[in-house]
Design brief:
binds 5-S-methyl-1-O-phosphono-5-thio-D-ribulose; alpha/beta; single chain; globular; four-stranded mixed sheet; seven-stranded mixed sheet
Length: about 350
Amino acid sequence: MYVAQPIEWTEQGVMMLDQRRLPADEIHYTYTDYREVAKAIRDMVVRGAPAIGVAAAMGVALGVQKSPARTIAELQTELSEICETLAKTRPTAVDLFWALERMKGRFAELARSTNDLGKIRGAMVQEAKEVHAEKKATDEAIGRFGAEYMPKEGQVMTQCNAGALATAGIGTALGVIRVAFEQGRKIHVLVPETRPYLQGARLTAWELYRGGIPLTLITDNMVGHFLKTGKVGAIVTGADRIAANGDTANKIGTYQIAVLAKENNVPFYIAAPISTFDLSIASGEQIPIEERSSGEVTHIQGVRIAPDVPAAHPAFDVTPNRYIAAIFTERGVAKAPYTETLRELAAAGSPAKAAS
Ligand code: MRU
């Protein structure tokens, strides 16, 4: 089945598929400077929490590889600048910060064991490639755990795009749907268009169509109607940051879907890797919400659709844990009380344990 490739490490640099141009054009860029990678993350050439993490890891590797530093101390100074630049791109997706910490940790390990800058540069590139490879394995495990919760036959709703484009694997929420579909479940996906950036209409619809998974595109204000009329068996979305108590930040609009799901007795699930957990914060109230440009609300693809008035664009909202029936991860499925089950999963070393 077709799996989109949003990002790849190549000999020439970091290659990205420009997601802003989908579905009309499939254009790739190759970045040779970490600052360009940072700009690509900020401008949404690459987006989706795990894919942002992969991009950040590759950005660090690129910066270290191209650095003119001649000593470990100089390279360390440059690494700090590279990480600071990448950290300023998008504030909500915790995978970004997870990836930066991982690359810093690897650098510290290498600097303790060798003075050979060539070796360090090579090993940092290798680490970024491993982050990418792990995302693929992670998504497949999430997919296997989550597929069990999908209906044998019927409609499943998602939000935004939590597919291959968003993770650089097979996707989290769409990975669950994909595995369930491949197992023979007769799933039909309801895809809200996800204003203002239209990740549902432009990206999820494109991925599902290319993968041969049946779908119906709906506008965001149809969600309540479709949940009320009783034909949706489950909802599964991704996550950008999950607090210690299970409160979950995801694309703007997810909260209202979760509330409507509860009202209509439809189970609402989150699919996300452990790297999306932020156990340092007690609840969703502490999750920083990215404010993007109002122009993304007043314009669609550069065309003005509203008068020149103030417009708000919080890019994410937080769904309180009480609306979440379960969280699918690569190490198993967490259910309430999340403060305990998320901690257990984060501490578990093996990918096959289930906490419920
Ligand atoms: O602003 P975006 O497109 O980066 O937002 C993406 C989402 O909200 C996704 O649902 C989330 O990152 C999970 S991706 C597997």
